[in-house]
Amino acid sequence: MGNLAIFFGPEGGSVNRVAKSLAAKLEQQKPDLILINEATAADLERYDTIIFGISTIGRDTWDQKFGNIDWSRFMPIISAFNFTGKKVAVFGLGDHITYAYHFVNSMGILAKEVVKNGGELLGKVSAEGYDFQDSEALEGGLFLGLPVDEDFEPELTDGRLNGWVAQLNKEF
After folding, report:
1. Which of 113, 145, 148, 168 is a good FRET partner for 157, with 20 to 30 A between their CA atoms?
2. Does residue 25 or residue 57 have the better pLDDT?
3. What is the rounded distance in angstroms from the CA atom of residue 143 to the CA atom of residue 152?
4. CA gap 76, 165 in Å, rounded
5. pTM, whole model, 2 decimals?
């Protein structure tokens, strides 16, 4: 895979747990774990292969594009960054029950920004087996990364991560 980093945020909570679990499953590649609230554009430059982990904000903070302060600060860096030559995958946490019409939207917004800026997006996942109404992360029946619902489907997370790691190992 080359040099690999998992950029994630926010610290603590579900995204943090999933990022650490993913890193353990990718142990052979020795990924670096980098908190978004500590990351810079120079950090993005250092890696050929990048995995982003993001959560989708709730309705109460939709008046901002990203309610999470870590991602609010980092998204302008991503928007200005040239991802040409970078292989990128995204996992997104979302709640398919409470936010069925906005399931993992932030993952989609992030993935589209990476592609717009020249990145090669890998790790797309079939929508089969997911129950939701709508998502900005869905294109042509595929999610633009791995959706994870730790609120209502935590028992599926490990299996979904295992399948995604096997897929990434082939694609990266």
Report:
1. 113
2. 25
3. 19
4. 28
5. 0.92
pLDDT, one tens digit per residue, over 109-141 is: 999 999 999 999 999 999 999 999 999 999 999
For residues 123-162, b (16+ Cβ closer than 10 Å) or e, as one string? bbbebeebebeebbbbeeeebbbbbbbbeebeeebeebbe
Which of 108, 8, 111 lies closest to 53, judged by CA?
8
Number of structural domains found in the chain: 1
Q: Tokens at residue 102, please?
A: 């906005």
Our CA angle for 70, 71, 73, nearest 5°, is 70
Can you give the residue range of the structural domain that contains 85?
Answer: 4-171
Residue 113 makes CB contacts below 8 A (sequence gap 6+) with 75, 78, 79
